[in-house]
Design a protein that fits this description.
The chain has five helices and two strands; from the N terminus they run ααβααβα. It is mainly alpha-helical. The protein has a two-stranded parallel ribbon with strand order 1-2. Helix 1 runs parallel beside helix 2.
Length: 123
């Protein structure tokens, strides 16, 4: 299984897990570059059962590369520099109706980010 069928299967797993987690959590968060071919299908499915808010977190490629290469590899899918660059270039082309945009170029005070998200959730 590869390509779009693999994406769809992955999204079905995500949706099932979100349904399970929603039984005991009022707010859930998932992360995506938004570059999957079937991402808009996932958004549509999420909107059927959840209030969906889209937060755009952006940072320069060099910052992303540095952060990815220094993160805990045991809990992330390994990715090459070339693939990381390709993913980030594609992510820059994603244009969605963002509910909140966060510039994460420099490490920000976590409190400021949390407060921004809290305000968004209260609307």
């Amino acid at each position: 299984m590869a390509g779009i069928p693999l994406e769809q299967r992955g999204f079905q797993i995500v949706l099932a897990k979100l349904d399970e987690l929603a039984q005991s959590n009022s707010t859930l968060c998932i992360e995506s570059t938004g570059t999957a071919h079937t991402f808009l299908e996932l958004l549509a499915a999420l909107r059927q059962g959840f209030r969906v808010l889209i937060v755009h977190v952006k940072a320069p490629l060099d910052t992303c590369v540095e952060r990815v290469m220094t993160r805990d590899a045991s809990v992330h899918i390994p990715v090459s520099d070339h693939r990381l660059k390709e993913i980030n270039e594609r992510a820059l082309l994603v244009d969605l109706p963002w509910d909140l945009e966060i510039d994460n170029s420099e490490f920000q005070d976590e409190t400021a980010i949390v407060e921004s998200v809290k305000r968004l959730l209260q609307n």
